[in-house]
Amino acid sequence: MKNVWRQPLFVIGFTIVFGLLAGSFVYEWIFGNEPSQTYWIEEDGRPVESWPISPRLESPVHIFGTDQLGYDLFSKIILGAKYTILSAMAIAALRMLIAVPIGFIIGTSLRRFRPAINSLIDPIHYLPVSIFAIYILTPILWMPREGFSSTLLERIVIEIVILAFLTAPIVTALVANESALLYKQEYILASKTLGASNGRIIIKHLLPQLREKLFILYGQQLVETLILFTHLGMMKLFLGGTKVSYDLIGDPPMSISYEWAGLFGDTFRSLMGAPWLPLTPAIFFAILIFAVSAMMEGFTRATNSQASVKRRKRITSIPDEVIEWNREQLKEKMTLMKSGQR
User: Fold this and answer.
1) Domain 2-35+72-341 classified CATH 1.10.3720.10?
2) So where does this one cross the membrane (predicted)?
3) So where are the chain's domains?
4) What is the CA radius of gyration of the chain?
């Protein structure tokens, strides 16, 4: 892991993610959890622009402009960063915690049933997960006429659990297939012959071999979760709940937590009249996805360089004659072991 911090891509991606999270918490601690609001802009005592106000650097400063109700868009982006990033990380982490142990078990103890299990999971690849998420989450996230009966935290936790379980089978199949391939390696077969249990093989052999791939898989799940957030946002299902006005002339559905998918889904129809409204959260989404991709690429380069250095050291420290003799001995033992099994 020390080599990871020497990779510029990983450092850049980590700095962006950490900076957004830290800035969100610091901003709320200093200015509170309500964005600033400006009703109109005056010049020489006369109003010249009303909301939505375009981006401006003069007083009052609105770097990314305001929304349809005059709330500062930069404040909403910063306040919603922690909900967007932490929720996506929690969904991806829970998905991995569910899928990795089950995948290891299927790839080792239940490897005979792996083809049948894969045949059941494969159709899920072609099913739109967003459609299932919309049907399941609508009763939870859409505010009823009498208001929400649950708290913001409860709704976020429920959404995290549901979105994690929806795609966990696909991740389980990926881990199971990788485990099954490694399980056929000669050193694992030798450990099995010497009496190693499947649990010890998973801990001592499979997990160390798949550690780097699991990190990359976690990053991929994080990016997929962010994309799923945007799909839900387009359907007005925002993280933590959608605030709905049932008045005769009421406000449009609004995001309670100011998470970025909600800001994008709430304003993407304003692309022609006020393009800064949907483009600002879309740009921050792109920056976050770039940061996660940069971290994955930096981690891959660090692990590959570290593996090549170890391989080079191993070759220079052990004579070729010893390596060849060990290979011949292992082949003979494996041949005897296979003939004994027959």
Assistant:
1) yes
2) 9-30, 83-106, 126-144, 156-176, 214-234, 276-296
3) 2-35+72-341
4) 26
